[in-house]
Amino acid sequence: MSTLAVHDHGVESHDHDHEHHHHDTFLTKYVFSQDHKMIAKQFLITGITMAFIAMTLSILFRIQLAYPDKTFPLLHTLLGRFAPEGRIDPNFYMSLVTIHGTIMVFFVLTAGLSGTFSNLLIPLQLGARDMASPFLNMLSYWAFFLASVIMLSSFFVQKGPASGGWTIYPPLSALPKAMPGSGEGMTLWLISMVLFVASSLMGGINYVSTVLNMRTKGMDLWKMPLTIWAFFLTAILGVLSFPVLVAGVVLLIFDRSFGTSFYLSEIVVQGQVMPFEGGSPILFEHLFWFLGHPEVYIVIMPALGISSEIISTNSRKPIFGYHAMVYSLIGISVLSFIVWGHHMFVTGMNPFLGGVFMITTLIIAVPSAVKTFNYLATLWRGNIRFTPAMLFAIGLVSFFISGGLTGLFLGNAALDINLHDTYFVVAHFHLVMGSAAIFGMLAGVYHWFPKMFGRLMDEKLGYLHFWLTFIGAYLVFFPMHFMGLDGVPRRYYAFTEFPSMARWLSVNVFITWAAIMSGVAQIAFLFNFVYSIFWGKKTTQNPWGSNTLEWTAPVEHLHGNWPGEIPTVYRWPYDYSKPGHHEDFIPQTVPYSETMSSNLSHDFEDNEAGLEAFKKWQIANPPREEVK
Amino acid sequence: MIMAQIQQEDKLDLAPKKFNMWLFIFTSFMFFAALTSGFIVYSGGSGKGIKIILPHAFMYSTAVIIISSVTLFIASRAAKQLQFEKQRLFLWLTAILGIAFLAIQIYAWVLLVNMKVYLVNSNASQSFIYMFTGMHLLHVIAGLGLLFRALSGSYKNIPQVKNLFRMEFAGIFWHFIDIIWIYLYVFLLLNQY
């Protein structure tokens, strides 16, 4: 085999300072790039753009919720027919909620998060030149980009974007005449999501394949950083669950466009009896939530992996319970496929089946709690460096706990009768997967910004951004729990219309202003991000004193990541503050033979010869009294 | 030297690409698993079954696609033994059988329509027959694409490594399509009443 390659390329001779002879044009370097680092940046910037758009949408509907009867001429100027006389149109309000959810869940926290960090870190932390299939990787980004454009383009069709909620339950999504957003807006939503799923699958297949096939020498699975474990399991979840959504959507498209009755039964629309018969919208819910539930873990697991890495690095301590962390990720992944029914407790599900789903759901609390306790134990007595990335990672832990606790209430089939579809649910998932995941993503951006752009982000602005966002997010979502307990349903347009909800209006005003504050805080991030790309302080190769492989690659990006041979890995990635070593970190590339003073017997578990050499060394260098 | 090394790593590592195909097969499998589970949920919930005897055409198409798997296997073996004429012959045979399968499936649809079993149907169990076969046909068309890619590679005398890679790539997928069809057919047979 190898003779062929030498035949192809080996005859060219090289000066060793010429890494590569590709002549990158602007188009192949920045646009249709097949380099994983560039694709990661493309995903990140598209993701951030989508996040800002979705955030703006949320502020628009928050304004409506706080001031349901007021008119804002400015809104009319900005939104035109969607806000006649300066008051948001009820149908457009539904569109705002729908598209905010869709963009945040799929485009920001799935593609923006996994797409960015899996692409950046999988090859760099595993010691690979690039992804298994760089071409597929490029396609993945461009399918995502196209999906984003199509999703946004639905704001420009006559009747507005899809408005049946991000879960697109039929019949609203299956009958083009059901409501304005069920028309072209819904069609565009479906087209966009088909492209999005294609993108996710191409990305996911690539990630799994790269992790399993392209690790460098010495990098066995148990030496992989937790980030990689998280991305790997996330990709597996995506590969297994997205096809199910495709199946559900294919049937939906047939119902919409060809008149089949998979999801639709006898129904009258605008006084007209529709020809459908005998279908079951519950079927769609099953198919949707079989994806939908793993999807929330697709959202949170990369964030958990990122924060494991950041918390360990910045506590200058090995991650507490590395194996437990991996097994709990695996546990979460497996369980995620057998809990989807908890989204459907009140669809008339057999109470016994509800009980089964309740038990599986509550079991997820176990691995989740293992993870949070491990984070806290890692922080415990650490030599903590409060970088902005570290703050965001700790923020994630905070949100994961406070949002996770309410999951115990919602996972309970009996309590769910009261709580389902209320603001309690909104509060729960915005904390546990919304805020937590976005904090994981922001932590990742702050931490790996030097790796991506070769410069550091400003710390002061980072702190400002963190505190405003952290406090803002709690101020926004915490009061919602109480609204939910009082039975206030989600997605209602004007609280003034319902006497039982009217008293919550003042709380809505409060939440809206908190949301506006956190929204404004993001400008600090945006400015910091853009400014630092061009004018930030130049970084050193390993600014955080980190152990993982990506920091052994030069700051300047090369196609192929490392100029010479790919580094070999000798140890796990969490040797921070190892007693006996002169530095508080030992990169994975340092062999045990170079760190005799800090070695421990259990470092040589499967290495008889090494253990013998170490024993000899210990006899030759008896331990001295510690100097206090 | 470095360059040669990088290139070597880049160019010849076909294993991950093949692995990608296996992963794609998992996604496809999940897709059909979802469709068939959808069928179970629907027919279990509504009490409506397929309630017809499936046309015999499906039996013929099953035979055809099984034979095509055998011919593809022979083509693969011929490629490994450097018998390229034989490889091409059996690849052509496989492709023709694949197209025949496609034609028989469409013919089966015609028979179904004659039996007044339509896609647009108040009994979605019957619509599901079209969904299964239709979605499977999309896979067959993709499989044919891979077969022709292997075929064109063989005519262009691409290096043997790549030739074998394309054969395997097409092979994995084609055998998968075959197995999935058997699964779907057996599933339909078990549920026809």
Low-confidence blocks of residues of chain A:
1-20
User: How many structural domains in the coordinates of chain A?
Assistant: 2
User: Are there runs of chain B of 5+ residues with pLDDT below 50, and where?
Assistant: 1-10
Assess the beta-strand content of chain A as a share of residues. Answer: under 5%
Q: How many discrete structural domains of chain B?
A: 1
CATH architectural grouping of chain B? Up-down Bundle
Q: Kindly report the oligomeric state of this protein.
A: heterodimer
Q: What order do the strands of the largest sheet of chain A run in, or round the barrel if closed?
A: 1-2
Distance between the termini of chain B: 68 Å
User: Helical amount among residues of chain B, as a percent range?
Assistant: over 70%
Q: How many beta-strand elements of chain A? A: 4
Number of helices of chain A: 19
Indicate the CATH topology of the largest domain in chain A: Cytochrome C Oxidase, Chain A
| Overall pLDDT confidence of chain B | 90
CATH class of chain B: Mainly Alpha
Q: What is the ordering of alpha helices and beta strands of chain A? A: HHHHHHHHEEHHHHHHHEHHHEH
Count of helix runs of chain B? 6
Gyration radius of chain A (Cα, Å) is 26 Å
CATH topology of chain B: Four Helix Bundle (Hemerythrin (Met), subunit A)
What is the structure about, briefly put?
The complex is a heterodimer of chains A (628) and B (193). With 628 residues, chain A is an all-alpha fold.
